[in-house]
Write a structure and sequence with these properties.
The complex is a heterodimer of chains A (267) and B (267). With 267 residues, chain A is mainly alpha-helical. Chain A has one domain. In chain A, helix 2 packs antiparallel against helix 3. Chain A is globular. Chain B is mostly helical. In chain B, strands 1-2 form a two-stranded antiparallel ribbon. In chain B, strand 1 and strand 2 form a beta hairpin. In chain B, helix 3 packs antiparallel against helix 6. The model of chain B has no long low-confidence stretch (mean pLDDT 90). The chains are: A mainly alpha (267), B mainly alpha (267). Chains A and B meet through helix 2 and helix 9 of A and helix 2 and helix 8 of B.
Chain lengths: 267, 267
C-alpha cells in the first residue's frame, strides 16, 4: 500500500496533463475539428430547445433557462468524460488485452490513479470551454434566485455527478480483467448519455429508473441542473452525496479484486 | 440487372454469417438509434400534454406514432459507410475490393440489407413494445401502405448513394469526423428527426423542401401517418427520384476521381 500523498498525485496529474498537451500539439488541426464538432453538438442541443420552447413555456415544469443550465452541465461533464475518463479507460482495456498493463503495475504509484489519468485528450476540453458560456448565460438569467448556498450545492452536486460517472465507468472497465473485450460497454454508456440532455423527470418511470440506477446519467446531469434552479430537495442532495461516496468505495474495492485476478497476458 | 442476382445472393449469405458473429456488438450499436427517437418522443409528448393534447396540428398520439415510425424508417435507411470507408482506406482493405471485377457499392448494399434483416428481429418486437407501452393507436390507410413500400426503397437508395458518395471524401482525407458530424447535424434539423417539420419556422420548412433530407425520412414517416395527400405523394416521389439520380451521378463522378487519386497506404 502506497501512502496517499496528495501533493504527489497532484504533481503526477500535472505531468500527465503536460504529456497530453505535448502529444496533442502535434495534431493542432484536431483542435479545430473538435471545435467544429462541439459547436455542432451545441447547435443541436440549443436548436432542440428553441423548437420546443417555441411551442410551450415550460417542459415538465422546467423553464427555458433551467434547461439551458442543464445543457451547460451536460456539456461540462460530457467534456470531462471525453477528455479524461473515456480515453484513459479505453487505453486501460487495450493494456489488459495486450498485456502492457504490467508496465503500469510496476510503477511506484497507485495503479487505479495511474490508469484513470493515463491519457488526456486535451482538445476535447473544448466541450468544457463551450459549456462555460452556456452555463454562465443560464446562471445570469436565473441570477436573482441564485445565492451563495445554491452555488455551493451546485458545486457539490457537480462534483458528485462527476465522481459517480467516473466510478461507474471504472467498474465497467474493470470487467476487462475477466472478459477482456468489453469496449462496447462504453458505447452503451455514450448512447444512454445523450438522454441526459433533457431532465430525466420527463421520461416514463422505467426509462427514468434505467437512467438513474442502471446507468447513472441522472446524477451527473439532472441533479446538478436542478440544484441551480433551486428545485433540489435535501434528500436528493444527501442521496447524491451518499451514492458518490458509496460508488467510489465500491469501485475501489472492485478494482482491487480485479487487479488481484489479473495475471498478465502471457503468464 | 438479373446477372447481379447470384452475386447478391452470395454477398447476402456472407454478410449474414459475418454479422451473426458480432450479434452482441450489433445489439449494442442499435441502442443509439433507439434512444434518440425515444428521447424526442417523450419530449414532444410532454409538450403536447401540457398544451392540452395537441401542438402544431399533431395530437399526443400522433407524436408517439410519428417518432416510432421515425425510429423504424431511420433504422431501415441508415448507413455506416461514412465511417467504414476511412477505416478501409487507412487499413489498405480497399485495395482488395478494387481487385474484384464488380463495383464495390454492391457488396456494401448487400451488407447493409443483411444487417437490416438481422436487426429486424429486434426492431420489430421493439416497435410493438413501444407502441403498446405508449398506447399508440394507428389506423393505416391501404393506399398509403402500398405507396410506402416504393417510397421507403427510394429513400433507402437515395440515402445510400449520397452517403456512399460522401464517404469517398476519405480518398482525399482520412480525417472526416467533423464532416460526418456536420452532415448528421444538418440532417437532424431538416429531416424531421428532431420534431415534425411543420413545427419548425417557415424558413426551415422551405429549406427542407429543397434539401434531400426531408425526402429521406420525414416524407416516408408522414406518409405512414396518413398526412400526405395523393398530390403531395407524387411531388415527393418526384423529389426522391431527382435526388436519387443526382446522387447516382455524383457517386459515379466522385468515385472515378477518387480511384485516380487513391494510392494504398504503405505503397
Amino acid at each position: 500500500m502506497i501512502p496517499i500523498d496528495t501533493m504527489f498525485y497532484f504533481r503526477l496529474f500535472a505531468t500527465y496533463v503536460r504529456v497530453g498537451i505535448l502529444g496533442e500539439l502535434e495534431y493542432r488541426a484536431n483542435f479545430w475539428i473538435n471545435m467544429i464538432q462541439s459547436a455542432l453538438d451545441l447547435s443541436v442541443a440549443l436548436g432542440g430547445l428553441a423548437v420546443v420552447f417555441s411551442h410551450t413555456d415550460t417542459l415538465g415544469g422546467w423553464r427555458p433557462e433551467e434547461l439551458l443550465a442543464l445543457i451547460g452541465v451536460y456539456f461540462l461533464i460530457g467534456g470531462l468524460i471525453r477528455t479524461i475518463i473515456r480515453p484513459s479507460m479505453t487505453q486501460f482495456m487495450d493494456q489488459v488485452r495486450q498485456g502492457t498493463l504490467d508496465f503500469t503495475l510496476t510503477k511506484p504509484a497507485d495503479s487505479q490513479v495511474l490508469v484513470s489519468i493515463q491519457r488526456i485528450e486535451i482538445w476535447r476540453l473544448v466541450d468544457v470551454l463551450i459549456a462555460l458560456p452556456v452555463l454562465a448565460t443560464a446562471l445570469v438569467r436565473l441570477g436573482t434566485r441564485l445565492g451563495l448556498a445554491e452555488t455551493a450545492v451546485f458545486a457539490v452536486t457537480l462534483l458528485c455527478g462527476g465522481l459517480i460517472v467516473y466510478s461507474f465507468w471504472l467498474m465497467l472497465s474493470t470487467c476487462a480483467f475477466w472478459f477482456v473485450k468489453v469496449e462496447n460497454i462504453q458505447v452503451i454508456f455514450m448512447s444512454m448519455w445523450q438522454a441526459g440532455r433533457w431532465p430525466v423527470t420527463i421520461y416514463p418511470a422505467w426509462l427514468r429508473s434505467v437512467l438513474t440506477f442502471l446507468v447513472p446519467v441522472a446524477f451527473a446531469t439532472t441533479v446538478p441542473a436542478s440544484a441551480v434552479s433551486g428545485r433540489i430537495t435535501t434528500s436528493t442532495l444527501l442521496g447524491t452525496i451518499a451514492l458518490a461516496a458509496a460508488l467510489l468505495l465500491v469501485s475501489r474495492w472492485f478494482w482491487r479484486v480485479g487487479i488481484r485476478f489479473y495475471s498478465g497476458a502471457s503468464a | 440487372m438479373f446477372a447481379y442476382y447470384p452475386i447478391y445472393k452470395g454477398y447476402f449469405r456472407t454478410a449474414l454469417m459475418v454479422q451473426f458473429q458480432y450479434r452482441i456488438a450489433m445489439l449494442i450499436w442499435l441502442l443509439g438509434g433507439i434512444i434518440e427517437p425515444l428521447m424526442y418522443l417523450v419530449v414532444w409528448r410532454t409538450v403536447s400534454e401540457q398544451q392540452g393534447g395537441s401542438v402544431g396540428g399533431y395530437e399526443t398520439n400522433d407524436f408517439v406514432v410519428y417518432f416510432i415510425a421515425m425510429m423504424m424508417v431511420s433504422h431501415a435507411t441508415f448507413t455506416w459507410i461514412m465511417w467504414e470507408y476511412v477505416y478501409r482506406i487507412r487499413m489498405g482493405l480497399f485495395s482488395v475490393m478494387l481487385l474484384k471485377p464488380i463495383h464495390p457499392i454492391h457488396s456494401d448494399i448487400a451488407d447493409n440489407i443483411g444487417y437490416k434483416f438481422l436487426t429486424l428481429t429486434v426492431m420489430g418486437p421493439l416497435t410493438l413494445l413501444l407502441a403498446w407501452f405508449f398506447e399508440a393507436t394507428w389506423q393505416p390507410l391501404p393506399w398509403t401502405l402500398a405507396a410506402f413500400v416504393p417510397v421507403l426503397i427510394l429513400a433507402f437508395l437515395m440515402r445510400f448513394y449520397w452517403e456512399w458518395s460522401l464517404a469517398m471524401v476519405a480518398f482525399w482525407t482520412t480525417r472526416i469526423d467533423a464532416m460526418n458530424q456536420a452532415y448528421i447535424v444538418v440532417g437532424l434539423f431538416f429531416s424531421g428527426k428532431l420534431a415534425p417539420l411543420s413545427l419548425f419556422p417557415e424558413i426551415v420548412q422551405r429549406a427542407a423542401d429543397i434539401l434531400p433530407f426531408r425526402w429521406m425520412l420525414a416524407f416516408p414517416v408522414e406518409l405512414l401517418l396518413g398526412r400526405i395527400t395523393p398530390r403531395e405523394l407524387l411531388i415527393g416521389i418526384g423529389a426522391q427520384l431527382f435526388w436519387l439520380l443526382a446522387g447516382y451521378l455524383f457517386m459515379q463522378f466522385i468515385y472515378r476521381a477518387g480511384i485516380k487519386r487513391y494510392a494504398a497506404f504503405g505503397a
